[in-house]
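ping. complex inputs:
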Amino acid sequence: MGFVGVAPDEALMGLITGKRKATEVAHSVWKNIVRKGHTVIDATCGNGYDTLALLKMVADDSGRGCVYGMDIQSTALESTSFLLEGSADENERKLVKLSLVCHSKMEDVVPKGTPVRLVAFNLGYLPGGDKSIITRSPTTLMALQAASRLLDSGGLISTVVYVGHPGGRDELETVQSFASSLPMESWASCKFEMINRPTCPVLVFLLKK
Amino acid sequence: MGFVGVAPDEALMGLITGKRKATEVAHSVWKNIVRKGHTVIDATCGNGYDTLALLKMVADDSGRGCVYGMDIQSTALESTSFLLEGSADENERKLVKLSLVCHSKMEDVVPKGTPVRLVAFNLGYLPGGDKSIITRSPTTLMALQAASRLLDSGGLISTVVYVGHPGGRDELETVQSFASSLPMESWASCKFEMINRPTCPVLVFLLKK
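pong. complex structure:
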């Protein structure tokens, strides 16, 4: 089989050369994990780009896939809905369930026992929104714990941590501390960061074995 | 064009799942940087596996490629020669120049003005050898500085840092400190590490733009 137009290691080399954005690399990683029909969670809808990308990964004619999207800001959900209106068809949009709720409460939204394949976090603030509203370490930790409970075996918690704003490094510390607490028998957790660009987002991936 | 049998992002996913060894991932990265005819340096020959891998990447019928291999231990160079005897043909072996020298002196071995495409470091001790002989931070720093001077534009310094032995974390600190000192206009430096397996080797890549 051939992978037309996709070079091997493209995402990895994009990271190393610094030519691809952290979010693009995250999307590449998700494509290796998520299949049609999977249930996934966008824990921080923001402007909706991740919700849309995830929807395209899970949606097919069978109508089985599902994207739970959440955000604490109604403007984020409005932006997400607007983006989906323009970029997804009606059948696809039916697979998205948006909730105005803190991601620490994701278990209130996702039915118990649902096998979740991926939980995506963008930690920081809403681009173009109110910069005083940022994700905060205590709720981020609760959200990561909830995500780890919901996640199915083989699934991934993906975090893009924006560290260029006040509180960003604390948030990264929270994610790292949670990641290092996971038993290596059942989890593989890794971190990718640019060393000589300290404000670049840091990627942390937590894979449930 | 198709990449038969090579999945996109295989190396990246190998890192994330923890299923591929750091050295295997490093080799995958090198293959994206090194071409036939390039001049490369194995700064820590060890048992010779990296020297051999690099040789196969640069060698072709033109006889232009070149691998400078060095190690401070004669047993390492003997192991490397032995491996090359068994796994490379005579024409390929002519492209390898082995030197019993500390890698901090690599500029004494590589002719001035040679465009070097890759400098590979395995930092730690020689597997199966005398564990009291380890790479040390002061000479490692001098070696990284020398490598950065020799490297051609578009080239890569690749380091696999073994952190599971005494002094390993100091060595990583040295590499990180050097990497963060590089100006972002002319270098992209990044680090990949497993978070919940603190003794796993850490990968640091320094790409010269």
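Residues 74-87 of chain B form the longest helix (14 residues).
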